[in-house]
Amino acid sequence: xxxxxxxxxxxxxxxxxxxxxxxxxxxxxxxxxxxxxxxxxxxxxxxxxxxxxxxxxxxxxxxxxxxxxxxxxxxxxxxxxxxxxxxxxxxxxxxxxxxxxxxxxxxxxxxxxxxxxxxxxxxxxxxxxxxxxxxxxxxxxxxxxxxxxxxxxxxxxxxxxxxxxxxxxxxxxxxxxxxxxxxxxxxxxxxxxxxxxxxxxxxxxxxxxxxxxxxxxxxxxxxxxxxxxxxxxxxxxxxxxxxxxxxxxxxxxxxxxxxxxxxxxxx
Length: 267
What we know:
With 267 residues, the protein is an alpha+beta fold. Helices cover 19% and strands 24% of the residues. A hairpin with a 5-residue loop joins strand 2 and strand 3.
């Protein structure tokens, strides 16, 4: 189980409770992971209640090293050993179609502002691809998402990651929650369940959030839980079952994110 938000400069965990008896540990990727073994229970339920102090940051409201203001740029050699696993491409692209898609955001014959490049990638996916909720296990490959022109939040996050990696940028997958102020007529996608987006490493700014599903740049409305090189490392709830397939009846997931100001008017 990976439900607990990550403590960081922009989100501080105030309290957390998990409705089930379980034991928790830190994983090798610094995620907080809860484990449970169960036996002969007619209903298996996991309920997590979390309260945190959250500080949103405006899009790209952070300093960037002078050497990285324009693309292309080089990462600091001292950082490369840590960044290399997130720069390497993880999915086959024999025709470099993902790379060609990414290069549409570059200026021809002159440098491209790094901020413009990354925002262009994010908005290009948001504007050109159709969001389709999918409950099946797994993630589409970037080539499948390009071909279908549709996908879920995790598919779009992975496509942007691999597009950024094709340009030599470090990218990683984020799983978490998104605040959806429905009473304000929001059109935010991915609410009511877990959500996924990506981070790109920009020298001076660090890991910056990009949510291509909603065209969000920065951390607005995004609550991080886990980060990883690949979506397969950041499944919110996973496990195995030894028994009859017919015993499984159904699975439901519900995530409610509300602000203290809206406690009397749940959103």
